[in-house]
Design a protein that fits this description.
about 240 residues, six-stranded mixed β-sheet
Length: about 240
């Protein structure tokens, strides 16, 4: 708990996407890394039960204009629903955030796709993209999460071909990165050549400044079995958006 809190505090990100967070874990993190507004609910009941795909956003920078959680199924408003062969309930938490300093609004979506069923991952991705379209916004989208999909899985082509013009930030900034530098999943041993399944996608309306896979540890003890992925984005223009 202390190591996770210290990592979040040191990195000082403005927006954080959490996967596999239980209520007790989020409470521990809030106590150790204050200053964030939490958005989202547990996947089992939409409230506090089960894993969260929560968003944490800096309270001193953003105003939460809209937010919600939907289930990755044919009935996304039905709590606990799953219809694409996945045995585990999957959700996506989203928010429309107003950046008070830049006077811009952005839409952020955070998810954890299924680990077993390719159809569930693909259909879940398509649903998230539909929800992005339903916002009515033309740009300024961020999609992040544990997609449980290697870079060559078809859902990535679906994301890149969508009207939101989303770009895999790590891949765009590190096009020649060796496999040994790109792994994000490891069994708490810090191995860097594991599978890359954690992503941050950003629409082309953002400038891509930096992306890094954080491998922080204390004497070989890691805060998670996934390396956090970070990205630094800028607004491509100064023109305020509604």
């Amino acid at each position: 708990r202390d190591q996770v809190g210290a990592l979040v505090t040191k990195d000082n990100a403005d927006i954080i996407g959490i996967q596999e967070g239980f209520r007790s874990m989020l409470d521990d993190l809030s106590a150790r890394a204050p200053g964030y507004v939490e958005i989202g609910g547990g996947r089992e009941d939409g409230m506090a039960k089960g894993e969260y795909s929560a968003l944490l956003v800096k309270a001193d920078r953003f105003t939460v204009q809209e937010s919600g959680t939907f289930w990755l199924s044919d009935t996304p408003e039905t709590v606990g629903s799953r219809t694409w062969g996945n045995q585990v309930v999957r959700i996506c938490t989203w928010a429309k955030l107003y950046d008070r300093g830049n006077q811009r609004s952005i839409h952020v979506f955070n998810t954890h796709l299924d680990h077993q069923t390719p159809l569930a991952r693909q259909k879940g991705t398509e649903l998230i993209l539909e929800r992005m379209k339903a916002t009515g916004a033309a740009d300024s989208f961020i999609l992040m999460g544990d997609l449980n999909a290697k870079p060559d899985e078809s859902l990535h082509a679906t994301i890149k071909d969508a009207p939101q013009h989303l770009v895999d930030v790590w891949a765009a900034l590190h096009p020649n990165a060796a496999h040994e530098e790109s792994g994000t999943c490891h069994p708490f041993n810090g191995q860097c050549n594991g599978t890359r399944i954690d992503y941050i996608y950003a629409s082309k309306s953002f400038g891509l400044t930096d992306s890094e896979i954080l491998r922080n540890n204390i004497d070989g003890v890691y805060p998670s079995d996934h390396f956090p992925v970070r990205a630094t984005l800028t607004f491509a223009t100064e023109q305020p958006a509604p």
